[in-house]
Design goal:
By secondary structure, the protein is of the alpha/beta class. 36% of the residues lie in helices and 22% in strands. It is built from 19 helices and 27 strands. The structure holds 2-deoxy-2-amino glucitol-6-phosphate. The site of 2-deoxy-2-amino glucitol-6-phosphate (AGP) has 15 residues, from α9.
């Protein structure tokens, strides 16, 4: 899940590459590197461990010159995040340079056989076999296109690769195999761009082509051609929208802080034109399934990973309680290997802000092979998930830069709610009166989230009280159980504090042994049918001298008097309470992380888009 960037044109490539990598750093930031080819045919490679800023200053000082280049920001899989393991990697002669996203699963045996041919390796990476394989085929007289084509038949796994060689200046070759993150090619005037994702390209051009599995692109200054297995493929560039304002941090200290604050708007934008309040109807423009297909659905399977899995788990309640369709939510990385008994009667709903998460994509491929209709909930326009699924409900959040998902999660919950309403409507289960009752609370949601955010000072004070704790327990029941898991995940991700999210009913079966004064318990107890059970859980924690922070609906004095700290929430329909309970947990995690001096937007070891297993 590294970021890759390429440029060939009239401008200084190094500056273009560094700007592009800045937009891709969410994919990894263990090391960074560029290779630039100058007009005299000299290749300059600069690379080092660490983040982009220091690297950029170093490269600027060296004045790397040349109008063609490739660059990489790395999330380490094989080999430590060191200078030597940073990309680009080269062949023995230094004439072939490669950057790569993916894992060469058979790199050990390839290294052995290449070593036997006399190739020497510098790094511990799996990637380094790729330039050496290309060198091998060039040595047999192949063109760079043919050498890359042969190379990708030798390497196992899923990959996105960019390669250049001194033997053919002016050309960058790109290849995509499987779902290791995308390659998108941007068309400029007398210049062309390549990147793993749109944010790196959209400041320059909106005319793009996405490389599909198995395709190879030959990108020169004035021409781009495509092939598959050596045969030409025709591809037509498409125009994609871009809002540059959403990419800027503005007056906020961190993107996470900004993105938390943007949630009322993200919800509103996700609802716009879809929740038709005056007509008591839901309209989903890109659902991709006809009336017959919708009627035949007997079951819904929601899949996702991490925060998106928690959104999927919440969506399960919507599917059952709104659309009255049996539903399950599964971890995509587990489900994909289960050979689950599933077919055309099951609607698969994948949740993925990036649309590029490898396990989610693999689960979707598995579902496609089994004939399931599919809808994806995605934030990135044109993400790979949107190309696998029959239909898409985009969350309209703009770019989310912070590695910890916040606004895209809340918008995904909103989108799945809309999808459940739509399914009920199209299957004739929800009449106008019931739909009015389902939509009305949605209309209030942006305002209510705004109200919750106004209490930011309280969340900051709680963070001040608890930021030195080393363990937290988050408890929730029913639809609040996934929120408890998400609260714990957010805290772990950005503050590196150990936190567990538990179904509160499970507490007595083990976790209660952990309760003491040093482990705060965050109890999600908004007003719903399980609120009394949560009150019991809170009392049980208090009886063991635990410290409780309770999230409760305004006016619930009994909870306030039992817990040590109270976070008030507006009165809402229980199905939409997860949006309101999630916000203080995000803000709490953010403030704790800031107090602990953590890198909030780029937490250690993480990457925004996970394109490796
Ligand atoms: C969220 O804070 C995490 N960064 C992570 O769990 C994320 O939700 C997960 O990797 C799934 O990503 P996706 O939504 O792009 O598929």
């Amino acid at each position: 899940m590294c970021g890759i960037m390429g440029y060939v044109g009239e401008r200084e490539a190094a500056a273009v590459l560094i700007d592009g990598l800045r937009a891709l750093e969410y994919r990894g930031y263990d090391s960074v590197g560029i290779a630039v080819l100058d007009d005299a045919g000299e290749m300059a490679i600069h690379k080092r461990a660490g983040k982009l800023n220091a690297f950029a200053a170093e490269v600027a000082a060296r004045e790397a010159s040349g109008r063609q280049g490739i660059g990489h920001t790395r999330w380490a899989t094989h080999g430590a995040p060191s200078d030597i393991n940073a990309h680009p990697h080269t062949d023995c002669s230094g004439k072939v340079v490669v950057i790569h996203n993916g894992i060469v699963e058979n790199f050990v045996e390839l290294k052995q056989s290449l070593r036997a041919e006399g190739h020497n390796f510098q790094s511990d990476t799996d990637t380094e076999v790729i330039p050496h394989l290309i060198e091998h085929y060039l040595g047999e007289g192949a063109s760079i296109d043919a050498a890359v084509r042969e190379t990708i038949t030798r390497i196992s796994g899923a990959h996105a690769i960019l390669a250049m060689t001194l033997a053919e200046p002016g050309v960058i070759i790109a290849a995509r195999i499987g779902n290791a993150g995308g390659v998108v090619i941007g068309y400029g005037h007398g210049e062309n761009y390549l990147a793993s994702d749109l944010p790196a390209i959209l400041p320059h051009t909106r005319r793009v082509v996405f490389l599909e599995d198995g395709e190879v692109a030959r990108v020169a200054r004035g021409a781009v051609t495509f092939s598959r297995d050596g045969r030409t493929v025709d591809k037509v560039p498409q125009d994609v929208p871009y809002d540059p304002v959403s990419a800027a941090k503005g007056s906020y200290k961190h993107f996470m802080q900004k993105e938390i604050a943007e949630q009322p708007e993200a919800i509103l934008d996700t609802l716009r034109g879809r929740a038709l309040f005056s007509e008591s109807r839901v309209s989903l423009e890109d659902i991709g399934l006809d009336a017959d297909q919708l009627r035949q659905i007997r079951r819904v399977l929601l899949v996702g990973m991490g925060t998106s899995l928690h959104g999927a788990m919440i969506g399960r309640y919507f599917m059952e309680q709104i659309a009255r369709i049996p539903a399950e939510a599964e971890n995509a990385s587990e489900w994909r290997y289960r050979d689950s008994i599933i077919g055309p009667e099951t609607l698969v709903v994948s949740v993925s802000q990036s649309g590029e998460t490898v396990d989610t994509l693999a689960a979707m491929e598995e579902a496609r092979l089994k004939g399931c209709p599919q809808v994806t909930i995605c934030n990135v326009v044109g993400g790979q998930a949107t190309r696998i699924a029959d239909g898409v409900v985009y969350t309209r959040c703009g770019l989310e830069i912070g590695v910890a998902s916040t606004k895209t999660y809340v918008a995904a919950i909103t989108a799945v709610y809309l999808l459940a309403c739509y399914l009920g409507q199209e299957r004739g289960l929800i009449d106008r009166e019931r739909m009015a009752g389902l939509l009305q609370p949605l209309a209030q949601l942006p305002f209510q989230t705004g109200e919750v955010m106004k209490r930011n000072g309280e969340y900051e004070r709680l963070a001040q009280e608890f930021f030195r704790c080393n363990n937290f327990l988050f408890l929730g029941r029913g639809i609040q159980y996934p929120v408890a898991m998400e609260g714990a995940l957010k805290l772990k991700e950005v503050s590196y504090i150990h936190a567990e999210g538990y179904a509160a009913g499970e507490m007595k079966h083990g976790p209660i042994a952990l309760i003491d004064r040093d482990m705060p318990v965050i109890a999600l107890a908004p007003r719903d049918q399980l609120r009394d059970k949560m009150l019991s859980n809170i009392q049980q924690v208090k009886a063991r001298e635990g410290t409780v922070v309770a999230l409760a609906t305004a006016g619930d004095q009994e909870i306030a008097e039992t817990a040590d700290h109270i976070v008030w929430l507006p009165e809402a329909t229980p199905l939409l309470n997860p949006v309101l309970t999630s916000l203080p947990l995000q803000a709490f995690a953010y403030h704790v992380a800031v107090r602990r001096g953590c890198d909030v937007d780029q937490p250690r070891n993480l990457a925004k888009t996970v394109t490796v297993e």
